[in-house]
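Researcher: Let's try something more involved. This one mixes different molecule types, so please make sure each is placed in the same coordinate frame as the others.
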Amino acid sequence: DTGVSQDPRHKITKRGQNVTFRCDPISEHNRLYWYRQTLGQGPEFLTYFQNEAQLEKSRLLSDRFSAERPKGSFSTLEIQRTEQGDSAMYLCASSLPLTSGRSTSYEQYFGPGTRLTVT
Amino acid sequence: GNSVTQMEGPVTLSEEAFLTINCTYTATGYPSLFWYVQYPGEGLQLLLKATKADDKGSNKGFEATYRKETTSFHLEKGSVQVSDSAVYFCALTRNSGYSTLTFGKGTMLLVSP
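Model: All components are placed in one shared frame. Result:
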């Protein structure tokens, strides 16, 4: 059973550098999400994809952030010109909508996260 | 907008004690409610869920009941173990095709032998 994987697990970078993270979702899941979690806080939504289409972006996602999911499989999240405030855990999750009767549930399965430290 | 409020931690208990972690929410419509758990050094794991009012989610001895009248989804366990020590997050998602999660800040649980 292959879960959601993220690479790298840890990244230390200097302010002003660009970084890119990768997420590989569970293979049959068509939805992929990015969240950011800072110390002592719950995860905050950044963006999500259904297949290769980016359907929603949070206001937290500034112009320095860009995400792609080119073939509807893995996704990348790039941060340009990193700032110290970008230091956080970046979480990826995937889901497959499950419909039962009239209700649809979206159980999201999370990866281990990429911890970014900007010095 | 949507929001989730959890009781602040840490919650410190002795093994076999009764656990309650309070969670209340604000949302329009009829959200689905979740509890996620994050063990030290690991990723978030879904613990239990409830998709409509009066539903009870349960897993591994944990339970939570979706109370629409009090907009609450409190997590309970009758007898905690040291291995339950973790951070617990309450979360919601709106239904009708909208699936992104809104999380509370998390509550750390520490269980001592």
